[in-house]
Write a sequence for this structure.
């Protein structure tokens, strides 16, 4: 049999390892900073780009796309050639992929703190960067699928299945969720509004977890666990079943992020039942990972890589048990909007993604540098710091979430809210925030040890750039296949085009069934005639609200519970947000809900002058408040140079402004600003009409008022 | 870089066995040295999957066919509110029977009043009562009168045009009276750090 010689080039795997570690150190440090800012709100020092609400997206995007993203590419660029017995398709495309991805991250690191954001969680990047992401992703795809076409192995291995599903689905999710119309080079409005925007966003957000944090890591697991343990995969059949079940079911589960929102019951129900059905497929992955270690448990005790893998896969099992649990309405009524969610996602990222990444790099680096790991003891210390850090991070937050939620719902015997002041429920859980920051610090210390260990290993060793290999060409490979059950699937593994199309169909079904009827069937979003478009000043104020990331701590979605209606007013209706491009429902209440902030007959209402003083110095109004000060909103002049183009884009998106309203918008804006300015001045505040705070106040005082109009006094009278 | 497989032996029927677990390896499944076993799905896993599907079916039928009120959001809310209203009329009757607006001077009541002041009122009137968004509570100037009943009315009904909220749905009449008493007994006449300029009419 004639053998063909070829070489694996390890350069990109090495680069991606360096990028993973570098961005890991940065993204986690930003997270830690955010944790401390929640304890010391004035830590931002009045600096906009250093404020919690500006850096939180840097942390989330950084952890997901920079840290985990580069870890994924490390795994793909190392394992794909070896699993397919061929070098990567193109070195040039690989280099463009690597540098393109790092440039995108750099762009994100600069734009997000400066307030250039779309405000959709984990999809905050502005449209020019979105385009770059799609281009780089396509380049990655060409390189990846090109490699598959050149393969010298007939059937593709389960890791490759997961990589394929990842590539296809992320492409679909990213493009659909980021459809937007630019108003300028740095700003745009999404084509969707309100509840429809929310549904698309959480279809994306949930499946970013599924197809960026989960499926590629299952691919990684299926390669590195058997390699590191030198054990066969426990069950090929389980691989097949859990792969298809996972990708088909996952995509439906997005609506569980919107339980008890104004999303119609039927969509919520689909989100719930598919989340429950997701448990077994997820655990299939965990089982296949852990059971592969049968016969190697003695090594697990010794080997830091395997230890990390075991804790990582176990964390995956915990997180995927908790996910379905949180999708039950009764549990979700308690957990949603609280720190419970934060604890949940960190079990996934710190545990599953973090531990697998560390384990992979501990295993890979000595092999790439033809040496031993610099210090096993250091790696073991890292393992314990990471494990303890994770527990100190999450357990206090579970407790915090539970406590706060119960306090929100508590009534006195007379039928009043037991804690009418939201702040009381925050003050109560502050000790838990301290513990979380402590847990985060432990975890972070571990990451630093990890970086040092890898750095030292690299210094000692000598990089093995090329590895020679030989194998027969694909058409000459003799097929030694014994007949087993599931032969039809074996055929599919040999036909990658068909496999990819099937995977695409599997992931498209759920999204189509949920999203399309939301557009076509009118009854899903009822029309409320009192709901009108925002005035130009309110629109500008809303864009400031988006820029500052207010949605990261304040929801705008009152759930239909007596405790919320008492606290915040009438529960939110789908028809109220039809002009909200983008929606601002939020997913966490670190501060109170603002959906009806402007309704003066409700308990949450505050006069204009209160908002002015509060933005300047929140602690002056509430000594224990953990809201950071926003003095620059007071000082900045409002930029109205894009107001007309914003109105025009809104008109294109179907918001019913009069036809040539753009030309009159600034005049109306000034009139309304003058009125609010007068109101503030009459309260003894020295302020000019052209400040950003005026626009923000206009927006806040508009919030939730439309359906209350005939019920209350106009608060400006 | 083929992995060394010393844990494999040939079975007499021609297939390969993993010696550490005695499980059957699938022939031809070899990826960079990674082999796969021909194990079946664990049966408890299969049952978990089946049960979750049964749950999904039952849930869907209850919602889509029988329209169970505990699964329909609007019904759930209406039931919760109806339950509450039934009880509320009883509570209100009790409250009305034994309540009189009269200045409280007991330490316990004043401490409770202070608690409410710090948690709720201080956001606009500041903790020391000096006023910021809302008026100064320490001086002799009052916009809406200076008797217990006057203040009680303001706290109860609010002065919406001025930004003062109504607290009748947030604080029980007991609590409203406590906080009003706290203002009149404790706060009034003290010297705050940055008093707001007088507003309203002077009362001696």
């Amino acid at each position: 049999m004639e053998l063909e010689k070829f070489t694996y080039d390890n350069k990109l795997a090495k680069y991606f390892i360096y990028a993973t570690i570098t961005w890991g150190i940065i993204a986690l440090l930003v997270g830690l900073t955010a944790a401390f800012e929640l304890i010391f709100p004035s830590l931002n020092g009045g600096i906009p780009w250093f404020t919690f609400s500006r850096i939180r997206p840097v942390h989330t995007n950084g952890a997901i796309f920079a840290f985990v993203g580069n870890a994924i590419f490390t795994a793909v660029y190392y394992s794909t050639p070896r699993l397919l017995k061929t070098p990567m398709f193109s070195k040039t495309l690989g280099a463009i992929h690597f540098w393109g991805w790092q440039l995108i991250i750099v762009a994100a690191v600069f734009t997000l703190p400066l307030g250039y954001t779309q405000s959709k969680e984990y999809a905050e990047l502005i449209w020019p960067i979105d385009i770059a992401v799609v281009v780089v992703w396509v380049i990655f795809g060409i390189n990846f699928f090109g490699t598959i076409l050149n393969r010298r192995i007939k059937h593709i291995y389960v890791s490759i299945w997961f990589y394929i599903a990842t590539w296809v689905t992320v492409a679909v999710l990213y493009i659909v969720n980021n459809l937007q119309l630019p108003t300028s080079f740095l700003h745009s409005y999404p084509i969707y509004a309100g509840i429809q925007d929310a549904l698309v966003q959480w279809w994306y957000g949930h499946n970013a977890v599924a197809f960026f944090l989960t499926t590629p890591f299952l691919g990684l697991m299926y390669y590195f666990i058997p390699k590191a343990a030198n054990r066969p995969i426990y069950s090929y059949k389980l691989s097949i079943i859990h792969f298809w079940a996972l990708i088909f079911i996952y995509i439906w589960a997005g609506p569980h992020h919107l339980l008890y929102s104004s999303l119609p019951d039927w969509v919520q129900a689909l989100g719930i039942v598919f989340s429950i059905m997701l448990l077994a497929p997820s655990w299939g992955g965990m089982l296949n990972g852990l059971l592969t270690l049968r016969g190697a448990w003695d090594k697990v005790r010794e080997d830091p890589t395997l230890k990390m893998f075991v804790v990582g896969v176990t964390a995956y099992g915990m997180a995927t048990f908790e996910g379905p649990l949180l999708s039950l309405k009764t549990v979700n009524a308690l957990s949603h909007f609280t720190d419970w969610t934060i604890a949940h996602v960190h079990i996934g990222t710190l545990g599953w993604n973090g531990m697998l990444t560390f384990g992979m790099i501990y295993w890979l680096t000595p092999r790439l540098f033809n040496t031993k790991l610099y210090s096993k003891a250091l790696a073991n210390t890292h393992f314990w710091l990471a494990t303890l850090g994770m527990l100190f991070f999450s357990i206090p937050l579970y407790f915090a979430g539970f406590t706060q939620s119960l306090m929100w719902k508590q009534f006195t015997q007379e039928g009043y809210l037991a804690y009418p002041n939201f702040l009381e429920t925050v003050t109560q859980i502050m000790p838990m925030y301290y513990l979380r920051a402590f847990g985060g610090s432990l975890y972070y210390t571990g990451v630093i040890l990890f970086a040092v260990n890898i750095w030292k290993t690299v210094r000692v060793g000598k990089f093995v750039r090329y590895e020679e290999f030989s194998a027969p060409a694909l058409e000459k490979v003799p097929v030694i296949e014994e007949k087993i059950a599931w032969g039809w699937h074996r055929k599919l593994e040999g036909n990658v085009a068909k496999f990819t199309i099937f995977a695409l169909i599997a992931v498209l079904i759920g999204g189509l069934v949920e999203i399309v009827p939301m557009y076509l069937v009118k009854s899903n979003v009822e029309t409320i005639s009192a709901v009108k478009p925002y005035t130009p000043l309110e629109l500008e104020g809303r864009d400031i609200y988006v820029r500052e990331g207010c949605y990261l701590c304040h929801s705008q979605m009152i759930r239909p519970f007596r405790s919320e209606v008492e606290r915040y007013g009438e529960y939110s209706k789908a028809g109220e947000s039809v002009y909200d491009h983008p929606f601002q429902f939020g997913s966490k209440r670190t501060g109170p809900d603002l959906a009806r902030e402007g309704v003066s007959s409700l308990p949450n209402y505050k006069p204009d002058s209160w908002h002015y003083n509060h933005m300047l110095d929140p602690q002056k109004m509430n000594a224990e408040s953990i809201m950071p000060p926003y003095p620059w909103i007071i000082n900045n002049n409002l930029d109205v140079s894009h107001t007309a183009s914003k109105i025009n884009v809104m008109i294109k998106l179907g918001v019913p402004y009069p036809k040539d309203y753009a030309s009159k918008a600034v005049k109306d804006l000034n009139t309304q600003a003058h009125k609010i300015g007068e109101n503030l001045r009459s309260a003894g505040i020295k302020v000019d009409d052209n400040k950003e705070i005026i626009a923000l106040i206009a927006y806040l005082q508009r919030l939730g008022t439309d359906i209350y109009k005939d019920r209350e006094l106009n608060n400006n009278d | 870089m083929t992995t060394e497989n010393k844990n494999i032996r040939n079975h007499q029927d021609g297939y390969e066995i993993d010696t550490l677990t005695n499980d059957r390896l699938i022939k031809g499944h070899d990826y960079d040295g990674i082999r796969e076993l021909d194990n079946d799905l664990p049966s408890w896993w299969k049952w978990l999957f089946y049960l979750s599907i049964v749950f999904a079916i039952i849930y869907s039928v209850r919602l889509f066919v029988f329209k169970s009120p505990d699964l329909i959001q609007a019904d759930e809310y209406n039931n919760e509110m109806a339950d509450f209203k039934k009880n509320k009329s009883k509570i209100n009757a009790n409250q009305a029977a034994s309540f009189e607006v009269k200045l409280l001077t007991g330490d316990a009541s004043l401490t409770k009043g202070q608690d409410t002041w710090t948690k709720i009122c201080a956001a606009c009137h500041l903790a020391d009562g000096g006023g910021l968004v809302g008026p100064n509570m320490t001086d002799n100037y009052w916009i809406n009168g200076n008797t217990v009943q006057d203040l009680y009315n303001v706290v109860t009904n609010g002065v919406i045009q001025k930004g003062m909220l109504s607290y009748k749905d947030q604080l029980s009449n007991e609590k409203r009276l406590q906080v009003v008493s706290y203002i009149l007994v404790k706060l009034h006449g003290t010297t705050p750090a940055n008093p707001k300029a007088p507003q309203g009419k002077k009362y001696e």
